[in-house]
Design a protein that fits this description.
single chain; alpha/beta; Rossmann fold; six-stranded parallel β-sheet; 37 helices; 24 strands; about 50% helix; helicase activity
């Protein structure tokens, strides 16, 4: 047996492009023009520490990245790591590299102890590229501890995978004891209402979606209790203990976000320069279909000065493949829209269904299992290989929150169904979007996710697939004009064509017929449609939001802030946070500016704890917290961080109820959608007809309850005989408790037993309804067409108000018109200007709790004539 070493001398390969032509067993004849162009530009930037390539979905960026890695491995003997978001993509990249390009990387997935010694040696000796997941590099003991060249595939999707290393994510379901005990430690830093939201075992949809942040001063004051607790309670829990060891000594640099499902502790931006396996590489190459705007890639990765290699010339009007969009929600009812998706799936051998969460996925898995003969595949079924799915002629793959990570080219899949908007992916994002109303920061991130998702089944220039959009939130995000202009011209054309066709399609079967025309790409019907899409594309222009330039200018200082705060340099962090806030001028950036004022105030507060005598940091922190409170009305605890109220003079700022109501109103409007008026108007019609009814008490109560929900109140009802008729709650200390007496023509007096029931409503609600405090203000009211009351009832009435039914109906009509007007410029959750406008509209129309309380205080039941 001879020696096995084979030294072949120094390579004479001139560039990654020339390397391609030495790959003799490749199945690809040649590089596409844009691939060659990008590689030539890259060859001039071999010494730059951070390079980003923008190549549209399906344009062959995997080959470009592999060629760059293989070139550096061979010519520079570098250790090369190719990072993918998921294990499925790891195996997909390796399979594609070997079978199509004659490049032979090694897949590293699973536990380190299972890596083959020969594979490890090949990587360490620079004999093969290692393809692995982000989590394999970003962990406390990575095998890949000193790579020299790192390729980050789907870099736009890397934020959650990358920041996970610094994110302690405590799940209510997987770590119940840790969740509940930590909640008890920090509960006195939370409003009572929020604490009750977290602890209830029967949460409402709003309870589940609500997210809160523990103010930094409150958090820091409890660190001495939190550290020993987490030291003990995370021990032995693998998905907590390692992350805890990373952030344990940097808790003052972290932030705590809470909601019903979990608690998240993490820094604002990943301090990636502290993770040497990542930061010490000679070069990092970020590959993405869209690099994002406004410094988004820098925020995601924590890296400065990432040089961009833009998409090649010609791609500003052309993209990859062709999509036919269906928007059944613009023409059909919700149940019919779902039926469109199911019938389209029946027409297709394989269907990809993308949904935002596990619960939605489970519902659809159950539906397909019970009502169709489709074979259902889930993420774990295609994680290692998609061979089973693409070999099945009667399949549907249902994936939750997987907007990247699977590529289905050609006949592998011709139908994609997408349900729901891929918005905030973690609690920090959700807090910034819904509470700080800083949605401008996440706008580009969400747009990128949407673009990636709808490109899963169009992977080449000649590829094509239909995309069926379900859910009003996603439909709005794609079709509203202010959002549409942000997309690539080709996508704009496909979306507008699909919208126009869908609005004119009157039945489920018509959608199926259009799909059949589309599948027959040579049919005259489709060829004419495709010509129209091209014409629309030529007339469309992509118009980036000018605010992205402001965010881009700010990101360097954001990274400087993160570096300083992580190192415990609170004075330096204050300086950088001040600089960020000063750059974020204008009303559109008001929410995000407020967040940075808050971070500056927190840094000043932390500096004050060091007993530095050079500045009055307490005064600075109060000033910054005041400025933060003036920027957003939703985060009421900001006002508690200062000794005096903001000097803005706005009466609304002091209202304890309106922020709660307006945020719930946003949820209602989002659920109904704004691209079509049908759902809203139908709901209003049912409400107004119901509260005008004098013969069916149940119908009135249902409409009464739904009116409260539509307005943003937490409304409820009960079938118990002694329970209130609908109650409306705002915050945790206002409750409108009603007794409806409407099954009468108004000639009968209000009976004493109705008054007696109204008296007892606060007692019933305080015992049965969660989320209210001991200091709750209860407003009792009887709604009825009656104009008199039994004499005996007046003796027992306890501060009960009277609301004549006709006046109540008139008030509801006014409320509906206010909502109708507010919908006109509602573009989604997280617009501070819209929230302020909505609050003023509520106050002006008397729809807010304070106004209702004043209205009813002027109409006591005791003013009625007795009979």
């Amino acid at each position: 047996m001879g020696f096995k070493s084979r030294y072949q001398g120094h390579s004479e390969i001139k560039s990654p492009e020339s390397l391609f032509y030495d790959l003799r067993n490749r199945k690809v004849e040649g590089l596409l023009a844009h691939q060659a162009d990008v590689l030539r530009v890259y060859n001039e930037k071999l010494e730059s520490p951070d390079i980003a390539m923008e190549l549209p979905t399906g344009s062959g960026k995997t080959l470009v990245g592999l060629l760059a890695g293989e070139y550096r491995r061979i010519t520079r003997q570098e250790r090369v790591v190719f990072l993918c978001p998921t294990r499925q993509l790891v195996h997909q990249v390796v399979e594609e590299a070997k079978h199509k390009y004659d490049i032979h990387p090694i897949a590293f997935t699973g536990s380190q102890k299972d890596y083959l010694p020969s594979d490890k040696s090949k990587y360490n000796d620079g004999e093969a590229i290692a393809v692995t997941t982000y989590s394999s590099l970003f962990n406390t003991n990575p095998f890949f501890h000193n790579p020299q060249f790192i390729i980050l595939d789907d870099a736009h999707a890397s934020e959650n995978y990358l920041v996970k290393y610094w994110s302690l994510s405590i799940s209510r379901f997987n770590h119940e004891a840790v969740y509940r005990q930590l909640l008890e430690i920090i509960k006195d830093g939370l409003p009572q209402e929020q604490y009750q939201r977290m602890t209830t075992d029967s949460p409402s949809p709003s309870d589940r979606s609500w997210v809160e942040k523990l103010p930094t001063p409150y958090f820091v004051e409890r660190i001495n209790k939190i550290i020993p607790f987490l030291d003990q309670f995370t021990s032995g829990i693998r998905d907590l203990m390692y992350t805890w060891s990373v952030i344990r000594d940097h808790l003052k640099s972290c932030h705590v976000y809470l909601n019903w499902s979990g608690i998240l502790i993490r820094p604002i931006i990943p301090p990636s320069e502290t993770h040497r396996p990542f930061s010490m590489a000679k070069q990092r190459l970020y590959m993405s279909a869209t690099l994002g705007l406004g410094g988004e890639l820098e925020r995601i990765t924590g890296r400065r000065k990432i040089e961009r290699i833009k998409a090649p010339e010609g791609w500003e009007k052309h993209s990859v493949g062709r999509r036919l969009f269906f928007f059944p929600g613009t023409a059909l009812k919700e149940e019919e829209s779902s039926l469109v998706a199911v019938k389209l799936a029946h027409e297709s051998p394989r269907t990809l269904l993308l949904v935002p969460d596990d619960q939605t996925a489970n519902n659809w898995i159950e539906f397909f299992a019970n009502h169709t003969n489709k074979n259902v595949y889930q993420a774990e079924d295609i994680e290692k290989t998609k061979a089973g799915f693409i070999g099945d002629e009667n399949a549907v793959a249902i994936l939750a929150n997987r907007y990247d990570g699977i590529n289905l080219a050609g006949d592998e899949c011709r139908l994609e169904i997408m349900l729901g908007l891929p918005t905030a992916a973690n609690l920090q994002e959700r807090f910034l979007e819904t509470r700080m109303v800083a949605s401008i920061l996440l706008q580009d991130r969400v747009r990128t996710r949407v673009v990636q998702a709808i490109g899963r089944c169009t992977r080449s220039a000649t590829d094509y697939s239909a995309v069926c959009i379900l859910g009003d939130d996603l439909q709005d995000r794609l079709l509203q004009k202010e959002n549409l202009r942000l997309y690539h011209p080709e996508l704009q054309a496909e979306l507008t064509f699909g919208n126009e066709e869908s609005k004119q399609t009157q039945s489920v079967d018509e959608f199926v017929e259009l799909y059949r025309y589309f599948l027959n790409q040579s049919s005259p019907e489709w060829r004419n449609a495709d010509k129209e899409i091209i014409a629309r594309r030529n007339d469309a222009n992509q118009t980036p939001d000018p605010l992205m330039k402001v965010l881009e200018d700010a990101v360097t200082f954001e990274l400087d802030y993160q570096q300083a705060i992580w190192a415990g340099n609170y004075v330096g962090a204050l300086e950088k946070a001040n600089r960020v806030a000063s750059l974020l001028s204008g009303d559109e950036l008001k929410g995000y500016r407020g967040f940075w004022y808050y971070l500056a105030g927190s840094a000043a507060w932390l500096a004050g704890t060091l007993n530095l005598n050079t500045n009055d940091y307490s005064s600075i922190s109060r000033q910054r917290f005041q400025q933060a409170a003036a920027c957003t009305l939703s985060v009421t605890w900001l006002r508690n961080l200062v000794e005096s109220e903001s000097a803005s003079g706005q009466q609304i700022v002091d209202d304890p109820y309106l922020p709660f109501i307006i945020e719930r109103l946003e949820m209602e409007l989002t659920t109904m959608g704004t691209t079509s008026d049908a759902k809203f108007e139908k709901r209003v019609k049912n409400i107004l007809e119901g509260i005008s009814n004098n013969t069916d008490g149940n119908l009135f109560e249902r409409a009464h309850e739904d009116l409260g929900k539509l307005l943003g109140y937490l409304a409820g009802n009960s079938d118990e005989r002694t329970a209130p008729d609908p109650w409306w709650i705002a915050g945790n200390n206002f409750c409108l408790a009603a007794e409806d007496y409407t099954e009468t023509d108004g000639t009968k007096p209000i009976p004493a037993y109705k008054v007696r029931q109204a008296n007892d409503h606060p007692t019933w609600i305080s015992r049965k309804v969660e989320g209210l405090s001991a200091s709750t203000t209860y407003v009792r009211v009887i709604i009825t067409p009656s104009v008199t009351v039994e004499a005996s009832a007046l003796n027992i009435a306890q501060d009960i108000a009277y609301w004549n039914q006709s006046d109540f109906v008139q008030w509801a009509h006014k409320a509906a018109q206010v909502l109708r007007t507010l919908r006109l410029d509602f573009t989604g959750v997280g617009n501070e200007n819209w929230r302020v406008k909505a609050m003023h509209a509520y106050r002006d129309a008397g729809l807010d709790p304070t106004s209702i309380q004043k209205l009813l205080a002027a109409s006591p039941l005791t003013k009625l004539k007795s009979q």
